[in-house]
Amino acid sequence: MAHFSKTLWFSAILFAILGASAQSAPFWRCELPGGIYVVSLPAVSSVSTHEYVVDGAVRVTELTIATNTAVVARFYYLEPMVPKSPIGFGQSVIDKAQEKLQEGAARAGVEEVWQKVVKNYPTTTHAHTVEYRLESVDQIKKVEKSLEDAWRLNKETLLKITSTETPADSGN
User: Fold this and answer.
1) I need a labelling partner for 156 at 20 to 30 A (CA). Which of 45, 60, 167, 172 fits?
2) Model pLDDT, residue 163
3) How far apart (Å, rounded) are the C-alpha atoms in residues 68 and 27?
4) Is residue 18 part of a domain?
């Protein structure tokens, strides 16, 4: 009988330590137009941001979340590199033409290719990477701040980003 009580007591303690910690681990949830990303905060191992240019055509501002799993999450904003005029007064013409092209595409309801996440099967679809394209550098900064605050404070957090309004952040 004493052995049974010790085993039961040990099992209850083990469940309390392992089971409760797994069930009560706070999560960071980010709801975006392109999907939902949820991560257990204790699983986050690093958060990084950086900016780079791809083939001289697109500037990328990227936030990467690494976890203790094989999956990496990437949140990024793509900004096409606009040609620069070698003479000062010609730049306004280039800028105006670029603006008119973007307005026309928006009115037609057509997204430019650089505004979408593009993957190549099977190379990038099986790379253990989840990707979300955001609409501005400001949204990248809000995702970074929300995640860093949640991670540092170990606090359950929900961040909602919509394509038409500023992101809304709420901690639970």
Assistant:
1) 60
2) 80
3) 14
4) no
Angle at 102 between CA 96 and CA 104, to 5 degrees: 100
Tell me the one-letter amino acid at 12: A
Number of neighbours of residue 27 by Cβ within 10 angstroms: 16
**C-alpha separations of 158 from 13, 60, 80, 86, 96 in Å:** 31, 25, 30, 47, 39
Cis peptide preceding 167, ω within 30 of 0: no
- Does 150 fall in a domain? yes
In Å, what is the CA distance from 163 to each residue of 33, 117, 139?
Answer: 7, 15, 10
Give the structural domain span for 126: 26-81+114-171
Residue 8 lies in a domain: no
Residue 145 and residue 138: Cα distance in Å, rounded?
11
In a domain, 153, yes or no: yes
Model pLDDT for residues 110-149, shown as the tens digit of each residue: 455 444 555 555 555 556 788 898 999 999 999 999 999 9
pTM of the predicted model, to two decimals? 0.64
Radius of gyration of the chain (CA): 23
Cβ atoms of 159 and 143 within 8 Å: the answer is yes
Number of domains, the chain: 1
